[in-house]
Write a structure and sequence with these properties.
This is Sulfatase N-terminal domain-containing protein. This protein folds into 2 domains: about 30-140, no CATH class; about 150-310 and about 345-510, Alkaline Phosphatase, subunit A. About 40% of the residues lie in helices and about 10% in strands. The protein is built from 16 helices and 11 strands. A 9-stranded mixed β-sheet has the order 1-5-4-6-2-7-8-3-9, sandwiched between helices. A two-stranded antiparallel sheet has the order 10-11. The model is unreliable at about 10-25 (pLDDT under 50).
Length: about 525
């Protein structure tokens, strides 16, 4: 401790190589203060942006951790040679800009420029950085230039048309992201049979027609959902990712509007379905917002970890993962660690689902409630009874055993089932409870594989991986449609088209002897090649 204190308090030493020019005196304590000011300002920005309660124990823990890092920085600075100090100042600037989400290559360029300025000019930028960080923190508190993101936003569009007919059944339409189909679940997992029984208990027990061999035509949401809701109509493949996130046309909504329906959409920020008519209400939840963590059941330590992880940029996460996994490949006895960016969709999607179910209690005739929830989408942070798991949340491509991640996925799937059951109870007790239609389906498969379902995997993908990527849940309950299992190998878009054309009066039918073809896309989600699903699909 005495050595550290000496290092932190040490001033700069006169450089023997250039005795004629005096070096500015910056102590290790001043360097530590500068680092703490920068990291504290970044922490405050994260909390205010996510509208997280600032005066909480977890925020204090996070600040204490950052203070410890600042002391280490100051100690290194106090011990370092002049050129190393210049490098440390450049690293501080580059790291701060990277955390602040400044796009590459500007953080690196700024860091290099600062390091060069300090090294050549023999003048530290730390005093300026300290003052700038404190001013930025003060401006954030006052709301000057501080961006804020609400966890949930609601938009209501005025409607001039008459109220929907009282004879129109209400429609509950739930899209569950990464929900596998019944027959596409892994047969080699001992838990699969029990999970299937739970799904069949609810869907078959409440009169749903359950299509056990339904599949998506695409393995990614930005392609699959627009194609499903447009009844299989080819979408513009060359649109950018940003353009694909805003769906301009929804044939399903057009068909409902022509019948006099009003549509209420519940969605994440990832895919915008709220533009087309006849959408009257639109709730958007921010899937990665950490604000709701403050009132969650997680421990103070877990909440502090989440806050701190928001300060780690994807760039550093990728570098950390590459370095750690590289050491494991070299033979170091390190445990398996899933080093990846923080994903909060289990919590935010579950809360949005609860809001959806609460609103369903007031559903009336002629109203459509459509919700797209990022559940049971990875990472798997929910128990079967929907409690948040402490510690790291496993992902579908976690570098551990398949069984462990499949079981973590099953936990979250069973929580998703509980939310779906709550939706069924809510609509059943609503003013529209005597006459309603309910559709529940996935958008693609669970994607529980070791490789992304991209075009370059076309010749490598096994039958099990094909089902993991494309098998998807589809269940419908309507007064005119008989319940039970249906093994027809139909695409989700064909099922929706058939139901819409018959106005939910006839069950769509398929040919058992036809093997379906599906699309694989590139990194920009542009379809590049077709593959054939296994026999019977």
């Amino acid at each position: 401790m005495a050595e550290t204190a000496t290092a932190i308090g040490r001033g700069d030493v006169k450089d023997s190589a250039a005795p004629s020019k005096r070096v500015e005196q910056i102590t290790g304590w001043q360097a530590a203060l500068a680092a703490l000011a920068v990291m504290g300002a970044l922490l405050l920005n994260v909390l205010l942006f996510h509208q997280y309660l600032v005066w909480t124990p977890e925020a204090g823990v996070a600040l204490a951790v950052l203070a410890g890092i600042a002391l280490i920085y100051g100690a290194l600075y106090g011990f370092a040679h002049r050129l190393i100090r210049a490098l440390l100042e450049g690293v501080l600037i580059a790291t701060a800009l990277n955390v602040a989400d400044v796009h590459a290559p500007w953080p690196i360029a700024a860091g290099v420029a600062v390091a060069a300025f300090v090294a050549l000019g023999r003048k530290s930028v730390l005093p300026f950085i300290t003052v700038a960080a404190l001013v930025a923190a003060g401006a954030s508190v006052l709301g000057i230039g501080q961006r804020r993101e609400a966890a949930v936003t609601m938009i209501h569009k005025p409607v001039a048309a008459a109220n929907p007919s009282s004879t129109l059944p209400a429609i509950v339409h739930i899209i569950l992201d990464e929900h596998a189909g019944i027959d596409g679940m892994p047969e080699d997992n001992p838990r699969t049979a029990a999970v299937k029984l739970e799904l069949e208990r609810f869907y078959l027990g409440n009169g749903f027609r359950l299509y056990t061999r339904a599949h998506s035509d695409y393995a990614y949401t930005l392609n699959s959902i627009p194609q499903i809701l447009n009844f299989g109509e080819a979408q513009e493949p060359e649109r950018s990712k940003a353009e694909k996130k805003k769906v301009e046309k929804v044939a399903y909504f057009d068909a409902l509007g022509q019948r006099g329906y009003r549509v209420k959409v519940y969605q994440s920020e990832y895919l915008n379905l709220c533009g087309p008519s006849p959408v009257t209400d639109c709730l958007t939840y921010q899937s990665q917002n950490i604000g709701p963590v403050a009132t969650s059941s997680l421990s103070t330590g877990s909440r502090a970890q989440i806050i701190l992880r928001k300060l780690v940029s994807p760039t550093f996460e990728r570098l950390g993962a590459s370095a750690y996994n590289g050491l494991r490949r070299l033979g170091l006895p390190l445990p398996v660690r899933d080093i990846t960016e923080l994903r909060m969709n289990p919590l935010n999607a579950a809360l949005a689902f609860d809001r959806f179910n609460s609103d369903l209690a007031a559903a009336g005739p002629g109203e459509v409630y459509l919700g797209h929830f990022l559940l049971p989408h990875s990472p798997f942070g929910l128990t079967p009874d929907c409690r948040l798991k402490e510690g790291a949340w496993m992902r579908r491509q976690y570098p551990g055993s398949f069984t462990s991640r499949e079981n973590a996925g099953y936990d979250q799937l069973l929580c998703t089932l509980k939310k779906t059951e709550a939706a069924y109870r809510a609509i059943s007790k609503s003013p529209a409870g005597h006459n309603f239609i309910m559709v529940v389906h996935g958008d693609h498969g669970s994607r529980m594989t070791n490789a992304k379902p991209d075009a370059d995997q076309a010749k490598l993908m096994t039958d099990k991986e094909k089902l993991a990527n494309f098998s998807a849940l589809f269940a419908v309950r309507a007064p005119a449609i008989p319940g039970g299992k249906d093994a027809a190998p139909l695409s989700l878009s064909a099922l929706m088209k058939g139901l819409a054309q018959s106005r939910f009066s006839l069950p769509p039918e398929g040919k058992a002897d036809v093997r379906s073809q599906v699309y694989l896309a590139d990194d920009d989600f542009i379809p590049r090649t077709k593959i054939t699903l296994p026999e019977g699909w």
